[in-house]
Amino acid sequence: MVFHCYLFGYGSCLGRRYEGMKYLMILYVAASIAVAGCSPGDASESGQEISANGFSPYVDEQGNISRPDNFRENWVHLGTWFVKEDDHASGPGVHDVYATPESVEGFKKKGQWPDATVLIKTVSGIEKKQLSTGNAQWAGDIGVWFVMVRDRENRFPDNKAWGEGWGWALFKADAPKKNVTTTWHGEGFNNCFGCHVPVKNTEWVYIDGYPTVRDFARYPELDGPSE
């Protein structure tokens, strides 16, 4: 009520009291901003979210990668791959790929992924049913999560899960918090190198499958889409 009256010119006798309260509020806000500026989760000059180690909140001091939460709600959806179930498919399913908003903003500015970029891909089962629109197919339950973290400074040379400027991680549905990647030259779903080597000229990322950002890409030679 004091604020309302003072703001519109009523009850000017309470002006001094309000001015004192306003001064305290300014001090509180300034102090809050100063503390926030020094806390983990701040943003770097490139716009990327950083942690106490000055790199990424999803990477610890040894280069161990954790799986982000709430990315479907808060991140940018880059695109979807549909891999049909047949004898030739090593990873059938619906592959949805997301990136942090800061990563997308940085890519659109420079045409390449900025340091600390985080990409995550979910591979879900394929559900199907005859609907009024035809034989419909859609994503079911998630089976695995792949996470890639851009590292342009080779921060973890002794960690074999890092290579070619990226950290590589795999999480499975039976233990969604456990990264099972120990080397990016693994086997099966852990063979990150074998899967991504066809697109080494586009920062090891299948950029053609991501309409959200692909028109902003600046690479001398774009590889065709593949999985």
Structure overview:
With 227 residues, this protein is an alpha+beta fold. It folds into two domains: 2-36; 71-216, Cytochrome P460 (Chalcone isomerase, 3-Layer(bba) Sandwich), CATH 3.50.70. 21% of the residues lie in helices and 26% in strands. The protein contains five helices and seven strands; from the N terminus they run αααββαβββββα. It has helices at residues 2-7, 15-36, 71-74, 101-110, 192-196; strands at residues 76-83, 93-99, 118-131, 134-150, 162-163, 166-172, 175-179. Strands 1, 2, 3, 4, 5, 6 and 7 form a seven-stranded antiparallel β-sheet that branches. A hairpin with a 2-residue loop joins β6 and β7. It is globular. The N and C termini lie far apart (63 Å).
